[in-house]
Specification:
Length: 294
């Protein structure tokens, strides 16, 4: 599992219905959670069934974010969620059929970092998740609610529809408002358009053909408000990607347009390299200043 940068409760009409675990731009958070869904017997319809060519890792990574199936668990006879605790913390986690083991607080210690100013932490990957909380009666009730939801076939596992705020949702399905479910379904139609653009761009093939690689390549279409980065501004409708490249001593992570990533892949030039040079120059300047003041 990979640490979540931020974990928080999800509330509807003042009632907590579950948790949101934000994602970072790493492989562990890019490959989907179909394996996890299967543990809870949640259907996993895939958009790639509607796209002729199915050989893109980028598309495979994205399918899990497309909520074509707003489904909940059907797994009451074989529950996976359980709560463990120590004096300081509560843990909500799951067993899986891959190894069948139940975790202990000691096992989970390496999967989270609890900032003192936060109530919750957690981690997840394609096959399992865990949430850690301060050991209070209120937090224990939140965890018990989700354990009960699984037993009542009322557990929802899904993702934020907003591409800029990707992450995992673990919710009580019956607590989700109808209007939110409709909005979630609508977002899948918009995402389908984006996926087709990604497919048609052949960007992954271009990157690999030029001997480069990446840990994450997450697309978005710029909204009406536009989008600005440290190196450029982009108009509404622009297809962009968050690139987390390999060889990070040479290349900078960040949001780039399709054209900028093509320039990096084919010519080894452009903002992906220029940003890295600037970052290195700024780092060296800071180090010199720190050494001078030492």
């Amino acid at each position: 599992m990979r640490n979540s940068p931020k974990v928080e409760t999800v509330e509807v009409n003042g009632q907590v219905i579950g948790f949101a675990l934000e994602a970072d731009f790493t492989a562990e958070h890019e490959w989907g959670v179909d394996q996890m869904k299967r543990e809870f017997n949640i259907p996993t319809m895939k958009l790639k069934e509607h796209i002729e060519k199915k050989n893109s890792n980028i598309l495979n990574r994205l399918f899990y974010k497309i909520p074509l199936n707003i489904e909940h668990s059907h797994n009451a006879e074989d529950p996976h969620l359980y709560i463990i605790k120590n004096k300081e913390y509560l843990f909500l986690t799951m067993s899986n059929n891959y190894d069948g083991k139940k975790r202990t607080p000691k096992d989970l210690n390496r999967y989270y970092y609890m900032r003192k100013d936060r109530e919750f932490g957690g981690a997840w990957d394609e096959s399992e998740f865990m949430i850690v909380a301060k050991n209070t009666k209120e937090n224990l009730e939140f965890f018990k609610m989700l354990v009960k939801a699984e037993l009542e076939n009322d557990l929802f596992i899904g993702f934020y529809p907003d591409v800029l705020k990707q992450g995992l949702l673990i919710l009580k399905y019956s607590g989700i408002l109808e209007e939110d479910l409709l909005a979630y379904e609508e977002s899948s139609k918009e995402a389908a358009v984006m996926l087709q653009l990604v497919h048609d761009s052949k960007i992954e093939k271009t990157i690999k053909a030029n001997g480069k690689g990446f840990h994450a390549l997450r697309p978005m279409i710029v909204s009406e408000e536009g989008f600005k980065t440290a190196h450029n501004s982009y108009e509404s409708g622009t297809l962009m990607f968050f690139l987390n490249p390999q060889e990070q001593r040479k290349y900078a992570s960040g949001w780039y347009s399709l054209a900028e990533i093509q320039e990096w892949a084919e010519k080894d030039s452009g903002p992906v390299i220029e940003r890295k040079k600037k970052e290195d120059e700024e780092r060296i300047a800071r180090e010199k200043k720190a050494n001078k003041n030492a």
